[in-house]
Design brief:
The protein is α/β, with parallel strands linked by helices. The protein contains 6 helices and 5 strands. The chain is about 45% helix and about 20% strand. Strands 3-2-1-4-5 form a 5-stranded parallel β-sheet, sandwiched between helices. Bound molecules: 4'-phosphopantetheine (PNS). 4'-phosphopantetheine binds next to strand 1 and helix 4.
């Protein structure tokens, strides 16, 4: 049995995240997506409940995926849920440096390993911060996010 944790801030979840979750759901028995607080990203656009709901909607076609909200350390939720591995997506070298450091920090504390899943070229440019920015100024991001995310973004447009 392999149970993996996919942590992120998911503000909001986008098609690149869904692709990583889909890949993990093929490779592992159980995938738990943890919508976390990123201490470096204060004031998320969406509330905890909204972020969690949007991930659930976007992954409802995957039978072995569940979603939790967590406000503490990744290693603590990993221990609480008896996770075997952390998985993270890599879009490119820009992600790699920060992700490598987090993986090494997390391993140094509890020994938990992180497995990187490379994104496909089709999804590698998608980033939540640009989804928020484009949508804020009325741009169309419907091809980049699940339908429920697009709907909520449009509700917030001026
Ligand atoms: O989607 P993001 O914002 O790149 O995800 C970053 C996240 C939420 C995974 C990271 O900020 C995180 O792990 N936050 C929880 C706090 C924690 O465990 N910090 C120690 C990291 S070594």
């Amino acid at each position: 049995m392999s149970k993996v944790l996919y942590p992120g801030s998911f503000d909001p979840v986008h098609n690149g995240h869904i692709e990583i979750i889909s890949t993990a759901s093929r490779l592992f028995d159980d995938v738990i997506v943890a919508a976390m607080l990123n201490p470096g990203k204060a004031n998320p656009l969406f509330t905890d409940d909204e972020r969690s709901e949007m991930i659930k909607e976007g992954t409802s076609h995957l039978g072995n995926v569940s979603v939790v909200m967590f406000g503490g350390l990744v290693i603590d939720i990993a221990a609480e849920l008896e996770i075997d591995l952390i998985v993270k997506g890599l879009r490119g070298v820009a992600d790699f440096e920060a992700e490598l450091q987090m993986a090494q920090m997390n391993r140094s504390m509890t020994g938990i390993e992180t497995l990187f899943i490379p994104s496909t070229s089709e999804d590698s440019y998608i980033a939540s911060k640009y989804i928020r920015e484009i949508s804020k100024f009325g741009g169309n991001v419907s091809h980049l996010v699940p339908a429920g995310v697009d709907r909520r973004l449009q509700e917030r447009q001026p």
